[in-house]
Structures are given as structure tokens and as C-alpha cells.
Amino acid sequence: MKTLIMNSFAFLSLLTVVSSCDSGGTNNPLIKKSTAPYEAIPFDKISVADMEEAVMEGIKLQNEEIAAITDSKEEPTFENTIAAFDRSGKVLNRAILTLSNLESALGDTAIMNTMAKVTPELSHHSTDILLNHKLWDRIKKVYDSKGERTDLSSEALRLIDETYRSFAESGANLEGEKREQFRKINQKLSDLTVKFGQNVTNEMSSPDKRIFVTEEETKGLPEDIKAAARSEAKAAFEANGESDNENLYLFTVFGPSYTPFMKYADNREKRKELYQKYNSRNVGGEFDNTQVLIDIANTRLELAKLMGKNNFAEYQLQGTMASTPEKVMNLLEQLRVNYTEPMKGEIKEIENYARQTQGHDFILMPWDYSYWANKLKNDRYAFNDEDLKPYFDLNHTIDGVLGLATRLYGYTFKENNEIPVYHPDVKVFEVYESDGSLLGLLYADFYYRAGKAPGAWMTEFRGETKDDNGNREIPLISIVTNFSKPVGDEPVLLTPYEVETFLHEFGHALHGLSSQATYASLSGTNVYHDFVELFSQFNENFLTEEEFLDGFARHYQTGDKIPAELIEKFVNANQFGAAYACMRQLGFGYLDMAYHTINEPIEDGTNVEIFEEKAQDPVRIFNVVEGCFSSPSFGHIFSGGYAAGYYGYKWAEVLDADAFAAFQEEGVFNPAPAKRFKKMLQSGGTVDPTELYREFRGKDASVDALLKRDGITKK
Question: How far apart are the C-alpha atoms of 88 and 95, rounded to whole Å?
Fold first, then answer.
């Protein structure tokens, strides 16, 4: 899922979504009221200049709206302060969502330049709001007196709490020198994280982080991978003004090159060489990150202590389901205890398999795992993703995935070709509730094109809200993927992974479409970060359910259903290596928490390799390889927004497996669990997610269902 935020304070951006007024006296289609059906975004009338103008005008309008709040002579109340702030910024939000979404979906240079131009303005605007003394004083007064209001709804009370928390965590509660210190620390962190990320990017392209291999050394690699590597080699020679050596192939530490080489290349020494290059990135040299990461960890600790916390994890985990470092570590420990022995069994099994051809003294090393695991998997299950592709024609898969919401929640979908779109490939569906009322619009942008950002994501052009009279403004939700475009009359056939991706993003979309909140910041996917993936990952579980597949998955030539034995092979193949995969994730989770639960600064010049070794020792898979460690290139936690949050991957897995277990216990299309799950979809952030989940499941989530799904336990 793609997250769109105006600045580093994510919650603030979610607060500034809806307003009751538009600016008159302009022909800008993003500023004036839309004349498109359902007041959808009028893409057919928007220029890049319109988007820039709307952002700047939106900033001005929101400043005026906030000034109206802060200059009010009335006593601060929920209505004139908290709700009024939540409803400010409609023009700005519409403009920035349109601009940022189109930047990703179209990759247009003019749009990218405009985004770069307005980003500093947006950052200053958000900071000014967060450090607005008058606004904070009014918010605080409402928060302190909320107990006196017996007429407020539970959603209103939660909005008060979340607004107060987001401002307080962003330094609004600080006074005098501490407030200025907060600003300086944030600026320092911004500079350090940018430097870390740039170093990672630059190191990836370093000539030192690539290898040339001969034709002989490419044995085992698929032809398409070899062709790409030949193209890379040719381009490298041309860039250096050298004659092309047609016998050489170039492989790098970038994923599309590194991953298949480690998985398929027969040459063990070359796998080792590339592994060592990959796992020694940003150590020494021009792009060294070892001191940068220490500075980041220490500066985050400084910030946490300024905010009255013992460590950064305590500060960062506010406003999450986990809530404390202790609960995070409890989850990681549960998984460690359950997955360690199965992981050792997997490693030994793969090693013994390799010894059949490599000799009894063969020791499996980290650069061997992908290669030999893949061989054993293919040998045991004789399964390939290509075996399922003929059954997943895109058009039928669209019917099947959308039909999942029909069977579970009673939603229906009607394509509408009259609603403006930003590209001819985009489809728009009207989405209806079971009673015939309109839920929202779903934009679906399926096909790859040059300039489009890689991967897949869900986003919105407008979130769902209600006005004071309960009138609902429908959400405009979008899912974007990069499936192959049809060639001639040939159908687009999806791999199981691509169908899973579709299901995943559709789960997020349903979260946005189903919302029945009043206030923007509590609507749809505006929930705690370790809760939001429940709804997307939950959907993925249906991919192996025969009752679901039978509804749409047919061989595009014969019309036959997927054979049950093929589905079984797919399930078993997915379980293969699950313990190793879990332990690898735990290694990153333990490392993340080690850096962010320090209570005293890490000394300058500390040996980062040894720090990492100690942190990951409880979940170690292979013996330490000297010079190979991940911290200096661990962008997720040092420049990517996952600081003290990497655990969230496993947290969400536990939730989605446990939630789907309820459907398996009662029937995967039983209306009873579907009704309870639908309530969670509708609630957004209006209820604490822990309470919401307990109501759905009747208990807290446990790891048991995940253990069963991964084949760790058979019960």
C-alpha cells in the first residue's frame, strides 16, 4: 500500500482532509466545485499548472480556516476547534492527492518537477500548524475539559484524543528552549536520514557493487535473466567508452539482478562474491553509513528523552496496537521460540539434499540457501507459478476479486465509462451496498507503462466523511498495479503472485470504500500502522480457497477449473521455507529494536558489525560471515519510516491469519464472520483497534493460526 503524506508528521496529513467551503472566483477545476459525476476529480480538465496553483491556494485557504479557529472569541469546544480543524484543508488535500497520485501513476516530468517545487512549501505549512501556539492551546483546553461533555459521541471523543496525541508527539506541548530544540533535532534527523538514504542509493550503483561473469559462469540462469545481464554489460562498456566483450554478463546488487542470480546461478564462487558485495554495502569508502546510523540512533534517543521517554521505541510506539517495546519483543520472542527448530530442520534438509551431489562435507552457507532451496522445492513439488497462469485470465480475475466483496459483504460493482480518468487504461466502478446505496468509486489502473512507479498500491483521491447532518461524501479509492498489457487479442494471464497482489490492494480499497466515519482523520485506512495491513493480507488467504477459485478461475483455453492437486501443490510450495523466512524477518526486527531501545547513546566509532551480531544472535540462521552485515544499508529503519516499526510485518501476519481462522472455523463464506469483519472495515479509526479486533474475534489474536498456516504446527 502506498502512503501519501504531506510531511513527516503522517497523522497531521490525515487530519487535513475535509472542509465545508471552496474558493470562489477561479476557473481552476481543483479549486472550484467539480462538475464531474459524484463531484469526482475532473481529470479531463486539469493541467499541471492547475495542480500547482491549487496546492498554493489550498495552503492559503487552510491558513485562513485555522486563523478563524484561533481568532475566535468563543470558548474552545469540540465543534469550533477539533471538528473545525479536522474539516479544514479540503482544497489542499484534493490538490496534493491529485498531484502526488498522478506523479506515481504517470511519471510525467512536469508533474514530478511540480511535486518537488511544492514539497518544501507543504513541509513548512505542516510545521507551522503543528507549532501554532494558539491552535494548540485551544486543542489542549478541549482535551482537558472533555470529561465535562456528556453529549459527545465515542467517535468525537476519540478524535479529541487522537488530535491531542498527534500534536503532543510533534512537539506542540514543549515550551521555550525545548520547542526550539525539538525543531533542531527534527531538522538534524531529516538531514541524517536523507544522507543515509542517498548513500544507500549511490552505493547500489557503485562499480564496486557488481560482477562480470562469463558465459560458462551463467549456467543455470534463465535466458531472460541472461539477456538482461548481457544488456547491462553492454551498457556498462559503452558508458566507459570500451569495446563490448560479448562473452561477459553484468550482475549487480539491485534486486532484479541479485535475486535471480542467487537463486539460479550454478557457480557457487560467483554467488559468494555477489553475496559479499550485497552484504557489505555502505561500509567504508565515500558512501560509508556506519557513523551516520550511529548518529541517527543517538539523535532519535535525544528526541525521545526530550519527549519524556526512555528510548525512541517508547516514543514511536505511541498510537500503535503494540504500544510498548515490551509487547513488540514478546511477539518476536513467541515467534522465535516456535520457528527456531523448524528453521534448523529446513536448513539441515536443504543441506542434506545438496550433499547428494556436492559430497558429505558440504556446508550450506548463506549464499547457497536460495539456490538449493529452489532446487529442492522444484524437485519435491514439481510446481512452478507458470502452471497456474492459464487459469488467471485478468478479465475473469477482476470478476472474481470484485465478486469476493459481493459474496462476503453484499457489495456490487458497475463500471462507469462517463467518469473522467487520468489515463485511458483506467477503469472506474461504482460500488454499491447491499441495500442499493452508493458506497464510493473504485478506480483500477492495472497495466504497466513507461514512467509508472513500480509495484502496486492503494490510495485515494478523496476520503469518506459525513457532514453535521449525516450526509456522506463518498470516497474515491484507487488501486494501481503493473500487470502486463494485452498484446492483440491475447489475454493477460496473471501469476499467482499477481493475483495475490490484486487481492491485497483490493483489501485496502474495501477498507476505504466501506468507511462509515464522520471525521476525515478517523476514516477508512487512517488507522494505526500495525493494524492497517490486516485488511489487505486477510484477502490474500482466499487465493488457496477452492470455493473462491471455483467461482472464476478457469483455463483460458479449455474452460477447466484448477485441479485440486495443483492447488495442494501451490499451498505446500508456499509453506516450504516458511520457518527460514520468518526467522530472517525476526533478524531484522530484533536489529531494529536493538537500535531503538538504547537508553544511552552509542559511542562514536562503535563497531557496528559487532553491535549487529549481538542483536541478532538469538535468531541467527547462519554463522557470521566476517564483513557481511546489513545495518549500514538498512534503509527501512534508518531512512524509510520503519524505525521501531519493522515488527509490523509479523504483527499484521499474526492478525490476518487469526482473522481468517475465524472464517475457516465458521465457513469461509459464512455471513456471520463476514458481518463482524465488515464492521471493522466500516469503523476505520473510530474505535481503538485492539477493542475492535476483540469484538470481531471474541479474543486477542494469537500466533496459533499463523503457525498452522505456515505448516509449523498441524493442529
Answer: 14
d(CA 464, CA 597): 37
Report the DSSP beta bridge partners of residue 412.
Answer: 432
The 3-state DSSP class for residue 474 equals coil
CA distances from 695 to 53, 158, 331 (A): 46, 18, 21
Taking each helix axis as running N to C, give the angle between helix 496-514 and helix 671-683, from 0 to 180 degrees, rounded to the nearest 10: 60
Distance in angstroms (rounded) separating the CA atoms of residues 555 and 259: 30
Report how far residue 333's alpha carbon sits from residue 689's, in angstroms, rounded to the nearest whole number. Answer: 23
How is 102-130 classified by DSSP, letter by letter? HHHHH--HHHHHHHHHHHHHHHHHHHHHH
CB 453 within 8 A of CB 104: yes
Helix (H) or strand (E) holding 635: helix 635-638
Give the pairing of strands 472-473 and 248-252: unpaired
Cα 557 versus chain centre, distance = 36
Say if residues 6 and 16 touch (Cβ distance below 8 Å): yes
Q: Which pLDDT value is given to residue 387? A: 87
The length of the chain, given as a count of residues: 715
Cβ neighbours, 10 Å, residue 144: 11
Residues 198, 707: Cα–Cα separation, whole Å: 38
Helix axes 648-666, 671-683, angle to 10 degrees: 150
- Yes or no: say if 317 and 323 are a contact pair by the CB < 8 Å rule: yes
Once rounded to an integer, what is the mean pLDDT over residues 183-193? 90
- For 312-337, what is each residue's pLDDT tens digit? 999 999 999 999 999 999 999 999 99
* Measured CA distances, 373 to 387, 628, 710 (Å): 19, 21, 16
- Mapping DSSP to helix (H, G, I), strand (E, B) and coil, where does residue 618 land? helix
The answer to whether 680 and 692 are in contact (CB under 8 A) is: yes
Residue 49's identity, in one-letter code, is A
Paired sense of beta strands 248-252 and 210-214, if any: antiparallel
Calpha distance 219→233 (Å, rounded): 17
pTM of the model: 0.88
Which pLDDT does position 36 carry in this prediction?
A: 96
Residue 1 has pLDDT above 70, yes or no: no
Q: How far apart are CA 188 and CA 647, in angstroms?
A: 25
Residue 394 contacts residue 493 (beta carbons within 8 Å):
yes
pLDDT at 260 over 50: yes
User: φ, ψ for residue 483 (rounded to 5)?
Assistant: -75, 155
DSSP string covering 644-680, please? TTTTHHHHHHHHHHHHHHHHHHH-TT-HHHHHHHHHH
- Mention every residue, 6+ apart, whose C-beta is less than 8 A from residue 510: 405, 409, 411, 535, 539, 681
Residue 80 DSSP symbol: I
Q: What are residue 171's DSSP bridge partners?
A: none
pLDDT digits (tens, 9 = 90+) for 29-59: 999 999 999 999 999 999 999 999 999 999 9
Distance, in Å, from the CA atom of 565 to the CA atom of 570, rounded to the nearest integer, reads: 9
Amino acid, single-letter form, for residue 72 = S
At 715, the pLDDT band (50, 70, 90 cuts) reads low
Containing 483, the helix (H) or strand (E) segment is: strand 476-483
Vertex 328: Cα angle to 323 and 330 (nearest 5): 125
Instruction: For residue 262, give the C-alpha cell.
Output: 542467487
Name 561's bridge partners. Answer: 554
Residues of the chain above pLDDT 90, percent:
84
Q: How far apart are CA 489 and CA 493, in angstroms?
A: 12
CA–CA dist 142, 129 (Å, integer): 17
Give the side-chain half-sphere CA count within 13 A for 164.
Answer: 17
Among 18, 174, 179, 170, which Cα is nearest to 85's?
18
